[in-house]
Amino acid sequence: MDTLLANNLTLGYGDSVVIDSLNISIPKGKVTVLIGGNGCGKSTLLRSMARLLKPKSGEVVLDSEDISKMRTKEVAKKMAILPQSPTTPEGLSVYQLVKQGRYPYQGFAKRWSEDDEYAVNKALEDTNLMELKERTVDSLSGGQRQRAWIAMTLAQNTDTLLLDEPTTYLDMTHQIDILDLLFDLNQDNGRTVVMVLHDINLACRYADHIIAVKDQTVYAQGKPEEVITCDLMQHVFEMNCDVRQDPLFGTPMCIPHGKGRCLIKQAQAEAQTSQTSVG
Hints:
The protein is of the alpha/beta class. The protein has helices spanning 42-49, 72-76, 94-99, 114-126, 142-155, 172-189, 200-206, 224-227, 230-237, 263-278, and strands at 2-13, 16-27, 31-35, 57-62, 65-66, 79-82, 160-164, 192-196, 209-214, 217-222, 241-245, 252-256.
């Protein structure tokens, strides 16, 4: 079963076309990762799926409904998006930020309820931010700040999460921390997670489904072990690499070619020199 569908989707800005006649399906209750070179349209595609960008043609379907025909709050109750590098008003506390996730449930006559408070506290607990809820967002570390934004999306209490490069600018420790959090949300709560990632090896480790975008459309989509090959890396990223099996997870692991200090070549050269000296 699919949560999100894009049918003959064409996207762009002005006269420029970024995505052309694209068709994709997002598996329900799975982790899907969008990959592709810089400027290929991954973020544009994610924005369109969240109804932040109107298609030039085609449609995005959420739970069998064209999202262009749905009310904004109706979409926001089903799907939450975390854009790339979001900014926070100065002085806003973590608690105040996470409260913003309840906006789809507020209205002219709708007051803050026990359900709203429960959703906010649950989001803070799930992201391990309860002890930091009175801190200002701008005083947090990069990893804590990203968790605060994710907590805001969780407070929306949606079945689907869209995240545009959630690990950008984070060190390796915090990248794993964020991805583990999203993985747990998927495994424990069955949430559908769709995200853009640049690290192919991490994408393979966490994704059930990978969609590779190239030349304004889908180059390949499927399980990581089916999609990630040397041929794909060459055509999509214009990069020569070896694809091996990750020794810890059994998922595809890309080893890019290029210049650098190569211990194998160094050892071979030293061995050859040693043999020549002996001879």
